[in-house]
Amino acid sequence: MKNLDCEIYLNNFIQFFRNNPDDLTNLIGKADTDDFFEEVKKQVYENLQKGEELELTQKQLVNIVVKLNKVDGRNVEKIVETFIETPYGLIGLN
User: pTM score, two decimals?
Assistant: First the structure.
């Protein structure tokens, strides 16, 4: 069953990356774009069912990218913690 708020969020999310394909490539690497958007959709609806914010967290995005790129996910927590969101984008703390 579709939810209007979810669909609006997803449309804006997808439109952003359609308008900024380099950002999408930087985020997902060699993963398939359609698979990425499908996983995002699943996560957004899962957030809805759990009563959480629809907007994906950094950790959720990292988990999707790790899954799609078939990377060993044991260090995902460390990956998320080494980046800080700033007005200028993500900054790595390595």
Answer: 0.73
